[in-house]
Write a structure and sequence with these properties.
Length: 357
């Protein structure tokens, strides 16, 4: 008769490829049931966006076949429980991910929007803060230009902002509270305090990931947020040109400063190449080639992916329907791969024994 201990011993030979430990040691195996020759169990992944889900499932099946019986009927249920940052004071938010760029105009907000939606599509609970207060574009990208978030009273009498909701994510932007046709001359402390309100005074509920679209460059908001809240990591957005890469290096160096010390989850290279709609297989590297990948190698961080320069991306953003929502679209697939790699890197960071806060 097959025993539970035999199943666990077999699964001790299955290593989580990113975390470099076996599934049993990582407490990723639950609900083992054995009925004669039928074996079922659940594998708890660290994120629903795990790109190695199929690999892990096949490894589990092979382990049972090799160490127990090749004739066993194996039912593997794959689910997830998103890991949380160590010492996270915001108990309802598991992971804060900031999206940053060294300069404006490289598509940082586009990456933020598609990253948030992509994570939500995997089943994660996701929020998005538009902290780019000098040029908030998230409302337009989600078709929420006229949105006016409501307020609610908590049981202890406090007033909380209720985020807008679209495409399965909760959204707050400074743009919801300002006139889009009027400039807002923010001073440094005013800007930082305004953004902190989006964290502290909002009713976010329980979130697996909170994506923060930062202003371009390095400034008060970056320092305030990273020193006030524990950040799981930063996604860096650049384009291939040397002028963008030079500014990107400065932005990355800021996150690595001892006083900030935020892990770099990796680099996304936007506008990597141009593919005309009539010739989708053709790639024209009009801004240079491989700059983002080389920069990732220089800093020894992951290269998260290339996003092509195609009309559908800007058209989708302008229409309030980010391109990742389009099925069977090569650009949507490129963003989905970035989403998986970001979630993967967050899980790796959370498994690290190094405590940063």
């Amino acid at each position: 008769m097959i025993t539970k201990e035999e199943v666990l011993n077999a699964l001790r030979h299955v290593e989580e490829p990113d975390l470099k430990k076996d599934l049993v040691t990582l407490n990723m195996i639950e609900d083992i049931k054995i009925e004669g020759n039928n074996i079922s169990f659940t594998v708890i992944l660290t994120t629903p966006a795990c790109p190695l889900k199929g690999l892990i499932e096949n490894a589990c099946r092979n382990a049972i076949a090799h160490f127990i019986s090749a004739d066993a009927n194996v039912d593997v249920k794959m689910t997830s429980r998103v890991t949380a940052q160590k010492n996270q004071p915001l108990t309802n938010i598991n992971n804060i991910i900031v999206v940053a760029s060294g300069k404006g105009g490289v598509g940082k907000s586009t990456v933020s929007a598609n990253l948030a939606i992509g994570l939500a599509q995997t089943g994660a609970k996701v929020g998005l803060i538009d902290a780019d207060i000098y040029g908030p574009s998230i409302p337009m990208m989600f078709g929420l230009e006229d949105a006016k978030p409501l307020a609610m009273q908590t049981e202890d009498g406090k007033t909380r902002i209720v985020p807008a909701e679209k495409y399965g994510i909760k959204i707050l932007s400074i743009g919801f509270f300002t006139n889009p046709d009027q400039p807002v001359p923010w001073r440094g402390p005013m800007a930082s305090n305004a953004v902190k309100q989006l964290f502290n005074d909002a009713e976010w509920g329980d979130l697996d990931y909170l994506i923060v679209d930062l202003p371009p460059g390095t400034g008060d908001i970056h320092i305030t947020l990273t020193q006030t809240y524990p950040v799981a990591g930063a996604v860096i957005v650049t384009t291939p040109q040397n002028v963008a890469l030079a500014d990107t290096k400065k932005g990355m160096a800021m996150f690595l400063m001892n006083s900030i010390n935020v892990p770099l989850l990796g680099i996304v290279e936007n506008m990597s190449y141009f593919s005309p709609a009539e010739l989708p297989e053709n790639k024209y590297y009009i801004f240079g080639e491989g700059g983002g990948r080389k920069l990732a190698e220089q800093f020894s961080i992951p290269f998260l992916g290339e996003i092509p320069l195609v009309q559908s991306i800007s058209a989708a953003g302008d229409s309030g329907e980010p391109v990742i929502l389009q099925e069977n679209n090569p650009t949507s697939k490129a963003f989905s791969e970035v989403v998986e790699r970001v979630a993967q890197q967050v899980s790796i960071q959370n498994a690290s024994e190094v405590k940063r806060f």
